[in-house]
Amino acid sequence: MPATPHRGHVVVAPDKFKGTLEGAEAAARIAAGIRRAAPGTEVRELPVADGGEGTLAAALAAGFTRVPAKVAGPTGLPVDAALAVRDDTAVVELAQSSGLARLPGGRTAPLAAGSYGVGQLIARAVALGAKRIVLGLGGSACTDGGAGMVQALGAGLRDADGAELAPGGASLRKLEQIDVAPLADALAGVEVVVACDVDNPLLGPRGAAAVYGPQKGADGDDLVVLEEGLTRFADKVAEATGRDVRDAPGAGAAGGVGFAALALLGATMRPGIELLLELLGFDEAVRGARLVVTGEGCLDAQTLHGKAPAGVAAAATRAGVRVAAVAGRLELSESEWREAGFAAAIALTDLAERPGDSLTRAAELAETAGERLAAELLIG
Q1: A GO molecular-function term, please (predicted)?
Q2: Could you give the CA distance from residue 203 to residue 210 in angstroms, rounded to a whole number?
Q3: What is the total count of domains within the chain?
Q4: 180: pLDDT strictly greater than 60
């Protein structure tokens, strides 16, 4: 006889499992396991992101339309990128154009990498009629303070001879003249909202160069050069605008792109997962749900500080719905993940038969995790 549906649907809302599963695939696999263990249960797949890599994919999975765009990569070579649009809202993911994964051959260019492609994606969104642009920061290859981004939107950044500055953070040390007037026309009537999960300022020991420069290939001397360039850029922007946001939380995000967004694009900044859940319609999806399942590659102490699974757990808890987690690795104690609001947590490493299976067989193990959660929380 046919299976009896379980009351209340299940929402599967994981972030990507970095290096193994994209968010949409993780959601599909976990959902397949739940359906197999609890036939008749309605399972809704809603992959999420926190503003970094995977933000575009999450928007597309939620019904946004993909718009391809060929733009400048971090070293200036063209790359095939995309943005997502729905009605008058566009989602721009920095990593699409200026991410580490876009570096030719994976070779870092800490002094010369720039954010010009991000500005081109924003310009494309405006040309499509977007009135609200959600800019996801994360995974950047550049430390140029967002200079390239604003140049692509029409701002003039020139040296003492009146020549336009070359791409990259190092060239900012030569900045003498800045013309930001074209930005007002380029973004007239457009709201820019930055999705960001870091609170670093632009400069100093917690700034863009010091904290994130080494991840982009910068050594000791490079870090000094980048800090000098970012400092000069901040000084000149303050002179031109009468506002100084170098110390604002998030100004140091994505190599300082957060700074330019705040100072020159008039952007507001929101916690990435909070903004993305709102954009993806999470509250509506979870209404009447019986269970929410989230996850990511590693559930650890960083998860508890604004990353996607913690945001999903908080939102589900506010809605009065139990939430469980699937992770590649689980580095939180049971008391820690329970205190964070999870009713259950399963690691792929605990399901693996051999070391390395959690990476090479991640999709299969994610299905098994879905089955286990269904058996524990839906059936048992």
Answers
A1: glycerate kinase activity
A2: 8
A3: 2
A4: yes
C-alpha 292/C-alpha 289 separation (Å) is 7
**Partner residues linked to 91 by β-bridges:** 84, 134
Q: What is the mean pLDDT of residues 175-189?
A: 96
| CA nearest neighbour of 256 among 153, 88, 137, 369 | 137
Domain CATH code at residue 85 = 3.90.1510.10
Q: Which of 127, 187, 131 is nearest to 155 (CA)?
A: 187
Query: What is the DSSP code (8-state) at residue 188?
Result: T
- pTM, rounded to two decimals: 0.91
Render pLDDT for 89-109 as a digit per residue (tens, 0 to 9): 999 999 999 999 999 999 999
Residue 341 identity: G
Last residue of a domain, one of 212, 247, 273: 273
- DSSP β-ladder status, 291-299 and 191-196: unpaired
Q: For 21, which DSSP code?
A: B
Instruction: Read off the DSSP letter of residue 124.
Output: H
Which residue type does 163 have?
Answer: A
d(CA 49, CA 64): 14
